Amino acid sequence: MKDDEILPRITDTASSENTKIVDCTDIAYFKDTDNYSYMLVGGFNINNNDDMSVETFFGASSDIYASEKNLYITQTKYDDYYKSKTIIYKFYLDNSKISLTAKAEIEGYLNNQFSMDEYEGNLRVATTYYTNKNSMINVLKEVITDEYVEPEYSNRLYVLDENLNEIGRIDDLAKDEKIYSVRFMQKMGYIVTFEEIDPLFVIDLSDPRNPQIKGELKIPGYSAYLHPYDETHII
User: Fold this and answer.
1) pTM metric for this prediction
2) Strands 228-230 and 64-66
3) Which pLDDT belongs to residue 218?
4) Where are the beta strands (DSSP E) in the chain?
5) How far is the C-alpha of 235 from the C-alpha of 225, rounded, in Å?
């Protein structure tokens, strides 16, 4: 195959109409990635026509979240027992330049980008942890069986410091349910899980090393999106 058939291409019309092929030596890769596509992260100054700064990676992402100074990119992976894990990559944003500064691996998968939030240098992340016991049974017995066991779900909230080290955590939030929406508002967090009745959990994150559930509301159905109205109300 020719290079232009397998390598990513960039066109920055602010400086040129020409298409540039990214050289192999300019592509980094995430070790042991399960995703065989490219991810390009570009930064540009909206006030001038300077060339766009582009970093290219082999192994794309699941969810993306950006704060004023940092970009967080996640990748979901599963082990042989189909236990879910999320890898988080943290990039520092220096004007139009980006640089990888930290990496972490946590259990569970994210619902969407709203499952992440940075506040006072810490990253808060909500995940659903899923175990497919049927796959575990088949792997352990080394045969396909007719035995069926309901998958197990649980939910977790992590607080990670600026180096993505875990400093706080809540386990087994709404066991046997899945997260359907998350919203963080400064020192508070709101998480909706669902199986049959919809619990809305209110979480106090004022002490990042000791997050606490302050209350919950159970109503029929589920909420797929939460929106802040002011400091003390959500829609």
Assistant:
1) 0.83
2) unpaired
3) 87
4) 9-11, 19-21, 27-29, 38-43, 53-58, 64-66, 70-78, 84-94, 97-107, 116-119, 122-131, 152-160, 166-173, 178-185, 188-194, 197-204, 212-220, 228-230, 233-234
5) 9
